[in-house]
Design brief:
The chain has 155 residues and is mainly alpha-helical. The chain contains seven helices and three strands; from the N terminus they run E-H-E-H-H-H-E-H-H-H.
Length: 155
C-alpha cells in the first residue's frame, strides 16, 4: 500500500491530491490511499478543503487510509509518533512533504497528465456564493450586493 499524507492549506492539498492520482496511475497494481489524520490534530488553513470544494466534481475521489492501514504501512501510530523530518517515502510506502520544498516531488512530474489535473480542479457548476455579472446572487433572488461587481472587475 502507498500512502500520501494530505496536509496544510488548499494549494498543498491540491498538489498532494495530484500526486495521489499520479501514484494511482503509475502503480495500478498497488493500493494508494490518503492519510488525512493531520487534520484531526491541526485546524490550520481552514482544515481539509479538497472534498468540500472539489467533491462535487465527477471523478473526484480519494480513499482515506484507516488507522490500522497506516500502522501496517508505516509501523507508526498515525499523527502521534510520525517523525517530523520524514519528507519522502518511508520504506517505499508513505510520502509526506510539501511540494514547495526542495527535494520534494517536482512539479514537472505532475505535468505529465495536465488534462487530468485541469479536469480535476475545474468547477463543473456554479457554486451558490458566486456573483453573476449583474451583481445579483447566484441563487437568483435578485438581491444586489453593493460593490460586489466592482470587486470581481479587479480579479
Amino acid at each position: 500500500m502507498l500512502v500520501v499524507r494530505i496536509t496544510s492549506g488548499l494549494g498543498n492539498q491540491m498538489f498532494q491530491y495530484c500526486f495521489y492520482l499520479l501514484l494511482k496511475r503509475l502503480y495500478p497494481e498497488a493500493t494508494v490511499k490518503a492519510d488525512l489524520t493531520w487534520f484531526y490534530a491541526h485546524n490550520d488553513h481552514h482544515g481539509y478543503e479538497l472534498q468540500r470544494i472539489f467533491g462535487h466534481n465527477p471523478g473526484f475521489s480519494i480513499e482515506e487510509a484507516g488507522y490500522a492501514e497506516l500502522f501496517r504501512a508505516t509501523g507508526l501510530i498515525p499523527n502521534l509518533l510520525m517523525p517530523g523530518s520524514m519528507t519522502s517515502f518511508k520504506n517505499g510506502r508513505e510520502y509526506k512533504g510539501r511540494f514547495s520544498e526542495k527535494g520534494a516531488v517536482r512539479f514537472e512530474d505532475l505535468r505529465r497528465y495536465p488534462n487530468r489535473v485541469i479536469r480535476e480542479f475545474t468547477m463543473k457548476k456554479r457554486l451558490p456564493f458566486l456573483i453573476d455579472e449583474n451583481g445579483a446572487d447566484a441563487l437568483g433572488t435578485g438581491m444586489s450586493l453593493p460593490g460586489a461587481y466592482d470587486a470581481y472587475q479587479l480579479v
